[in-house]
Backbone:
């Protein structure tokens, strides 16, 4: 009677697997915020109102109060006009148009706003100070033109600042979209790599199983179960953004079980996992990549027994994984270190500068050490 395939954590707790994360939201700097808009409006026009008080300090008594009131009315009118202008710019998208036509439309609108503001100032002066601004030696037309031109300049500066904010946000959005596309392409590339099965390992495993079929049917059935568990994990990990450490370790155990059929006593493994880390999440197959490298460059090239040590522990709120094998880095000169490069790229895409993977040599051991944020599903 053939033995049944072994039950692994992948079979016992499929519901504990971690699903892919939703697409990240836009950064706050790229989101249009009504709160920030009104803060900027109040800051700008409030500064202008304060300047109106300061420049009226030379007047005295009722004269000063009248001048300040007129200026504050004009500032309030400017605030209202700039808000309406903001709505018009968003609706017509004049700042996004190219060529002289868009500039002419903006200039005409600003000139009209300047005339309206000049009319507000003169009207307020007539009501508050009996039209003193129109009396004296200055010609009425020149006074109106000067006021219109001054407010045209103020609204022009307002429009320029708003345009610069839009241009910066647009540039950041383009950069963000570019990075998103780049990340998506790289992620698709990495998922394609995850979904692939190493033909060399697969054929070696089949040959090992074939040799066991005639000598030890139970061992052959167990080997098939390990290979099936590892392939299932690789398939699932290729579709998910992260998996539990317990599931990853189960797949690594299945992989090492298959490799022991080939290397027998040459492959010696010890695993040390700190308690409470089974539910911590990490990118799928990333630990298996380090273990595969340890087998390929540590065990395969030598004829004597080689130890591989796998450890996981918490360090300052982070997960530290280490895969060490006996050997020297100097003996890996023919290695492209593609596995390590892919691991670092995946960590950078997922965690940025918060994660790293380093390769070093110490006291006859080659250590691949990975540190990443502690996340639980």
Residues:
């Amino acid at each position: 009677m053939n033995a049944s395939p072994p039950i692994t954590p992948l079979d016992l707790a499929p519901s504990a697997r971690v699903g892919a994360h939703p697409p990240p939201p836009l950064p706050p700097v790229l989101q249009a915020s009504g709160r920030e808009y009104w803060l900027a409006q109040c800051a700008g026009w409030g500064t202008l109102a304060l300047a109106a008080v300061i420049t009226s300090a030379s007047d005295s008594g009722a004269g000063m109060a009248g001048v300040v009131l007129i200026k504050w009315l004009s500032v309030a009118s400017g605030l209202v006009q700039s808000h309406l202008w903001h709505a018009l710019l968003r609706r017509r998208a004049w700042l996004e148009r190219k060529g002289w036509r868009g500039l002419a439309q903006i200039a005409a609108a600003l000139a009209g706003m300047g005339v309206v503001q000049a009319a507000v100032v003169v009207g307020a002066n007539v009501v508050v100070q009996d039209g003193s601004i129109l009396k004296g030696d200055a010609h009425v037309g020149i006074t109106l033109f000067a006021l219109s031109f001054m407010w045209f300049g103020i609204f022009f500066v307002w429009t320029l600042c708003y345009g610069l904010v839009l241009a910066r946000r647009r540039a950041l959005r383009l950069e963000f979209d570019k990075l998103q596309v780049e990340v998506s392409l790289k992620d698709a590339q990495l998922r394609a790599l995850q979904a692939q099965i190493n033909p060399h390992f697969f054929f070696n495993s089949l040959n090992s199983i074939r040799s066991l079929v005639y000598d030890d049917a139970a061992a052959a059935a167990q080997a098939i179960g390990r290979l099936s568990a590892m392939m299932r994990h690789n398939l699932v990990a290729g579709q998910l953004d992260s998996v539990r450490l317990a599931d990853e370790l189960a797949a690594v155990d299945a992989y090492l079980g298959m490799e022991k059929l080939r290397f027998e006593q040459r492959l010696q493994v010890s695993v040390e996992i700190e308690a409470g880390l089974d539910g911590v999440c990490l990118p799928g197959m990333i630990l298996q990549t380090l273990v595969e490298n340890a087998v390929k460059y540590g065990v395969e090239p030598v004829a004597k027994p080689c130890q591989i040590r796998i450890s996981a522990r918490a360090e300052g709120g982070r997960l530290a994984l280490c895969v060490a094998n006996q050997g020297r880095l100097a003996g890996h000169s023919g290695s492209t270190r593609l596995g390590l490069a892919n691991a670092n790229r995946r960590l950078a895409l997922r965690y940025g500068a918060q994660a790293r993977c380093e390769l070093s040599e110490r006291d006859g051991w080659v250590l691949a050490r990975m540190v990443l944020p502690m996340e639980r599903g």
